[in-house]
């Protein structure tokens, strides 16, 4: 092991590789060279043994009573121990008689995995018809969830399928035991009798607050729920449940078991939040280009306000030789799938997007999130939940992450301060004029 001068290299020594991904350092204190400090590193196993961590569990997956086939699936995915939400929620979710659940836990702590395990465990294996429906707010998230279902159920005979735009042509039927999709398409296929709901006994909304808070998604989700004849178990999961949505959620899932977090517990410790001052829109763009080298150290997502600006920035960056992609809701399904698959494969490293990707997307190599524009609601006020979800695209399951807000006006600066106060978490300043310093700060963490 060498001294503090090159500790950015040795910090990554002997960290296990899981699924081809280096499990990254979770707690990082920048070393104070004068004091001869050493880098502090905590590994995933240590973190899962720390009762204060959301990844902690006192139990093993065996103790949660999973079938041997599912255990085999989990181990093949390199899951060694449950996280806190998995340990707490799962036994409640599979208890009999079934009870509804409204579950909250920080981003990247295994909520989606809990949902999937629940659906897989609840099925009556002899019934070869849809028994569980899981809705997600975006095509990208639905595709990701079906992948998790298929990975976890690899050693079982359970059937599952994705029902989103362009997946179920007229005349075909969705007959798999688990159905994952988006509300619009699922509503259509139920109405057209391409999907029978007679046996559906589990109904899940991932990113539930977002689903219920957005007019059309909320209406469609409730309508689907009302089409289910069997009085299903209703499971609502998210990292955030603002008060007004929680009331709505409680009506949709009456008498639910609830697991909730306080606001100050919401932000993930391993995500370091920064801001950089920019003195104009042009300077903001230049700053983004200047940090391009940092953005490509691993992978990153840049969030913009509008589709138009995401495209514009992507085009400008491409014209300067940078390898970036942009994804938003007006693109065709094929384009979206293709782009997302390429990003997951690491074919390009910077993805410029809108809120469509702010929820649930899990790509372990994303270590940097840039808020090119802050997320605002219809009244132009900061959308705290969207901010938290955006930065939660990094720092997944014990990995470190960095988020940067590009502040280009007094107003944005004020909004950045509001975010700090809201989550009781400091957002540190990084100078825009000293690039060596910027690099040192970021590369030390990523
Ligand atoms: P959330 O829905 O809370 O944001 P996910 O369920 O997407 O979190 O999980 C985040 C990441 O952690 C995913 O890559 C998932 O495969 C992984 N993961 C989830 N649970 C475990 C576990 N118990 N052990 C190891 N990895 C896990
Ligand atoms: Mg999730």
TrEMBL record:
InterPro entries: DEAD/DEAH_box_helicase_dom, Helicase_ATP-bd, Helicase_C-like, P-loop_NTPase, RNA-helicase_DEAD-box_CS, RNA_helicase_DEAD_Q_motif. It comes from Mucor flavus. Gene3D superfamilies: P-loop containing nucleotide triphosphate hydrolases. This is RNA helicase. Belongs to the DEAD box helicase family. It is an enzyme of class 3 (hydrolase). SMART domains: DEXDc (SM00487), HELICc (SM00490). Pfam families: DEAD, Helicase_C.
């Amino acid at each position: 092991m060498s001294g503090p001068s090159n500790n950015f290299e040795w910090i990554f020594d002997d960290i296990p590789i899981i699924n081809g991904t280096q499990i990254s350092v979770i707690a990082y204190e920048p070393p104070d060279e004068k004091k001869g400090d050493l880098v502090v590193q905590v590994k995933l196993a240590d973190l899962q043994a720390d009762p204060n961590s959301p990844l902690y569990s006192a139990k093993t997956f065996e103790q949660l009573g999973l079938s041997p086939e599912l255990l085999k699936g989990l181990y093949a995915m390199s899951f060694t121990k449950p996280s806190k939400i998995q340990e707490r929620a799962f036994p409640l979710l599979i208890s009999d008689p079934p009870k509804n659940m409204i579950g909250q836990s920080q981003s990247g702590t295994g909520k989606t995995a809990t949902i999937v395990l629940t659906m897989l465990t609840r099925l009556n294996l002899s019934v070869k018809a849809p028994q569980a429906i899981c809705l997600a707010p975006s095509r990208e998230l639905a595709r990701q969830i079906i992948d998790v279902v298929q990975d976890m159920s690899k050693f079982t005979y359970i059937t599952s399928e994705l029902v989103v735009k362009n997946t179920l042509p007229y005349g075909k039927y969705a007959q798999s035991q688990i159905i994952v999709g988006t509300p619009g398409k699922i509503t259509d296929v139920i109405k057209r009798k391409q999907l029978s709901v007679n046996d559906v006994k589990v109904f899940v909304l991932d990113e539930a607050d977002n689903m219920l808070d957005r007019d059309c998604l909320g209406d469609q989700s409730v309508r689907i729920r009302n089409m289910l004849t069997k009085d299903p178990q209703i499971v609502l999961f998210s990292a955030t449940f603002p008060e007004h949505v929680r009331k709505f959620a409680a009506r949709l899932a009456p008498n639910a078991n609830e697991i909730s977090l306080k606001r100050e517990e919401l932000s993930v410790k391993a995500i370091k939040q920064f801001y950089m001052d920019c003195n104009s829109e042009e300077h903001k763009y230049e700053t983004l280009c200047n940090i391009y080298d940092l953005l490509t150290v691993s992978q990153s997502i840049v969030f913009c306000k509008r589709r138009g600006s995401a495209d514009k920035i992507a085009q400008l960056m491409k014209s300067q030789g940078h390898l970036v992609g942009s994804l938003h809701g007006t693109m065709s399904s094929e384009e979206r799938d293709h782009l997302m698959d390429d990003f997951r494969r690491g074919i390009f490293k910077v993805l410029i997007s809108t809120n469509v990707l702010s929820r649930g997307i899990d790509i372990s190599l994303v270590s940097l999130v840039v808020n090119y524009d802050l997320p605002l609601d219809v009244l132009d006020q900061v959308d705290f939940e969207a901010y938290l979800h955006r930065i939660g695209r990094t720092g997944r399951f014990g990995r470190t992450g960095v988020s940067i807000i590009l502040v280009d006006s007094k107003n944005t600066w004020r909004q950045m301060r509001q975010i700090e106060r809201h989550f009781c978490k400091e957002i540190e300043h990084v100078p825009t004029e000293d690039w060596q310093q910027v690099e040192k700060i970021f590369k030390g963490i990523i």
